[in-house]
Amino acid sequence: MLSWADSPYAVPALFLLAFVESSFFPIPPDILLIALTLSQPEIGLYFAAITTMGSVLGGLLGYGIGWFGGRPLLLRFIGEQRVKSIHTLFERYEGWAILVAGFTPIPYKVFTIGAGSFYVNLKIFTLASLFSRGGRFFLVAGTIQLIGPTMKSFLEEYFDVLSVVIVIVVALGFYIARLLSKHLSGSMPA
Which domain holds residue 119? Predict the structure, then answer.
């Protein structure tokens, strides 16, 4: 992934990575965003905008996946009563759930597909995605622009350790999402 940062396809790769991560791919685009912003800090906010656009559009694909295919799968695996209960919770917290999910290490695709499955208002979903994902990516790029050389030397020195930490955080995000899913479906009447 980091080799893309030096390629002429870096910006399309960043867009594509952000797009697929929001709907089905497990690797977050932050790594490539960081590499690109470190290599060209003067256009870091441009990279953040590309990442945000890819992520929001990918989130809409995830929403579509949930809308057209998520609900039948949920009905099959957890039953109609639990689906109704989770739907009620998702409706109550729809915008807030998307806003929080956009910033956390919990895989965003869980929320994009869930939003479609539970028929979250598309305008609310899109706005919450735009604010949360944009906030996250602009924060990353902006921070690197502000403390550029210091951040670059820190990342060069500790890149291997940080890579392992990112992998652990992503794995923990999946684990937390799974626990929350079990908790929500287990605490509801069957």
Answer: 2-186
